[in-house]
Amino acid sequence: MRQASQCLVLEAAVDAAEIQSRLYALGLYPGVKVEVLRFAPAGDPIQIRIGSTLLSIRKQEARLIEVEALE
Questions:
Q1: What total of structural domains would you count in the chain?
Q2: C-alpha torsion sign, points 10, 16, 20, 22
Q3: pLDDT 10s per residue in the chain (71 long)?
C-alpha cells in the first residue's frame, strides 16, 4: 500500500494465532477500513488509522494482513 491510501482488511495473520490475536486486539480484523498515513524514513514502522485510532505496526506484521484497496 502507499501513503494516504485506504483499504479494507480481508484477513489478518491466518497462520499465526498469537500475532492474529494481537492484531485483532488492536482492531485489525476482517471488515475494518484502514488508512495508511505514513512510513518511517527507513520504511518501518507504518502508521495507520482505524476509525479515530492511530497505530504503528511493523512491516513484518503488515505483511501478514491481507487487504483490498478501496481507491
A1: 1
A2: negative
A3: 667 789 999 998 888 888 889 999 989 999 999 999 999 988 889 999 999 999 999 998 889 999 999 96
CA–CA separation, 46 vs 41, rounded Å?
10
Q: 22: how many CB neighbours lie within 10 A of its CB? A: 15
Q: What is the CATH number of the domain that holds 59?
A: 2.30.30.90
Exposure letters 37-65 (e unless 16+ CB within 10 A, then b): eeeeeeeebbebebeeeebebeeebbebb
pTM: 0.80
